[in-house]
Amino acid sequence: MTRLQSSFTPDASKDGGTLLSVRDVAKHYPIRSGALQRVVGQVRAVDGVSFDIRRGETLGLVGESGCGKTTLGRLVSGLIAPTSGQTYYDLDSSSLAALDAAQTLPEAERHAALAAINAAHGIETMPIEAKNRFRRNCQMVFQDSFSSLNPRHLVIDLVGRPLRVHKEASGSDLTERVVELLEQVGLGRQHLYRYPHQFSGGQRQRISIARALALDPELIILDEPTSALDVSVQAQILNLLNDLQAERNLAYLFVTHDLSVVEHMADRIVTMYLGKVVEAGPTRSIFDASAHPYTRALMAAKLDLGPAGAASENKAVLDGAVPDPARPPRGCRFHTRCPVATAQCGWEIDDIVRILERHEALCDTLTDVTRESDFAGTLVFEDADAAQKMAAVLASEAVPQPFRDALELAETTGTKLRVRFRQAEDIKLTRRGPDHLAACVLG
Ligand SMILES: Nc1ncnc2c1ncn2[C@@H]1O[C@H](COP(=O)(O)OP(=O)(O)OP(=O)(O)O)[C@@H](O)[C@H]1O
């Protein structure tokens, strides 16, 4: 893979250097079944994601629920370990160049080339002292302040804990440090000896932010920090985050499903769909010239709060549920819902299975599916009539035109229906403008 395809490395105005480099990171969760809890599949929550975060910038990570944003946030923070790939902390420019050059090498050579960089900068492989430094410098704020703040702890304990654990302060010094932190987030000394339930949602989120600031981090991962709040409180928290960033040169990874929030907050945006990055670029470039239909659909969906006409039109854009991440669609994973899909987007046998799920009567008569590959196979029905009917459905307007264009063969013999689609590879990210990448077959 070339660097262009594997990573998203900005040269934005915030040129404080790269803080974190996420490289080809994947997280697959095993699906277990039966009395013996055998592994029968994998949920591909994050599936080969690369991007950089620069010092002092806000990177917005957007996508619908279930696309893998939270998992990615936890991977980046080191809270969970990746299945493959790695996140690198504090690379100098020559290590960063070496890291990207190594991505183009064959697997075996890549390991050798990366050994020194992994040992010094990989958050899974660095020495314990370096990992502790990373942990101090990378903090998280979660959406649900109720569950992230222990209800039995006083504010002084909640905010002071990182200082105590890292032996930064104790006694009256600790109290004064906590007061300082509370004042920075708009609270004060009078709040020290109260419990989380005595605060409003917005105030609790301020306490979470104060706790995240305690060790003076370089990066805060904000996972839907304002989604549970009223709009007016949301604005106050976003303003607070902006002020803190300006004062402390903080970098934020801002995880949200809400593009209107990142439009105001983010310097750059990464759009994720079903575990993959589908588009990444400077915020203005994404909003003015989005190159992926999924990003455009998310942008349209944000107008749902607007005029009724826009709402109904936009609901159609993001119709249907996100497919099962254990069986992500081939080619472009968005092709099953894409309003501008083409025959090149990766239509496959599973798309027939998805169509069958909408035709209950036919689905009941299906007895077997044998696959030669993801793109070719045979469906066996109870009787020849059902096989003919299915062939007729596949040739009709009940299925999208690009699906029909991609279907090279649909041949019935008795109870069997043999099908073959045109082959497709995964769609790679390609350059669409300065620092702007998108993974779509359309130019
Ligand atoms: N511990 C886990 N075990 C198994 N599957 C998981 C686990 N955590 C997440 N998943 C699955 O991984 C996929 C991605 O989940 P994730 O929470 O990262 O998405 P998300 O975009 O953050 O969604 P949301 O906004 O709803 O949190 C989902 O299908 C989810 O069910």
TrEMBL record:
State the taxonomy lineage: Bacteria, Pseudomonadati, Pseudomonadota, Alphaproteobacteria, Rhodobacterales
> What is the name of the protein in this document?
Putative D,D-dipeptide transport ATP-binding protein DdpF
A single GO CC term for this protein reads: plasma membrane
- Gene field: ddpF
Key words of the record: ATP-binding, Nucleotide-binding, Transport
Any keyword Transcription?
A: no
Q: Which family does it belong to?
A: Belongs to the ABC transporter superfamily.
According to Swiss-Prot or TrEMBL, what is its membrane topology?
A: Peripheral membrane protein
Q: What Pfam families does its record include?
A: ABC_tran, oligo_HPY
InterPro entries noted in UniProt: AAA+_ATPase, ABC_transp_ATP-bind, ABC_transporter-like_ATP-bd, ABC_transporter-like_CS, Oligopep_ABC_C, P-loop_NTPase
Q: Name one GO molecular function term.
A: ATP binding
